[in-house]
Amino acid sequence: MISSGQRTEQELIASHGVAAYIGCAATATVVVAGITGMFIWLAGHFGVSVPGWLRLMLFVLCACGGAWYGRHLVELKLTPRRGYERIAIGMLAVCAAVAVLTTIGIVYTVLAESIQFFRQVPIREFFFSLEWSPQIAIRDDQAGASGSFGIIPLITGTLLISFIAMILSIPVGLFSAIYLSEFASKQVRDSVKPGLEFLAGIPTVVYGFFAVATLSPLLRELGSTVGIGISGESALAAGVVIGVMTIPFVASLSEDALFAVPQDLRNGSLSLGATHGETALQIVVPAALPGIVASFILAFSRAVGETMIVVMAAGLAANLTLNPLEAVTTVTVQIVTLLVGDQTFDDPKTLAAFALGLILFALTLALNFCALRIVRKYQERYD
Question: Which pLDDT does position 259 carry in this prediction?
Answer without folding.
Answer: 87
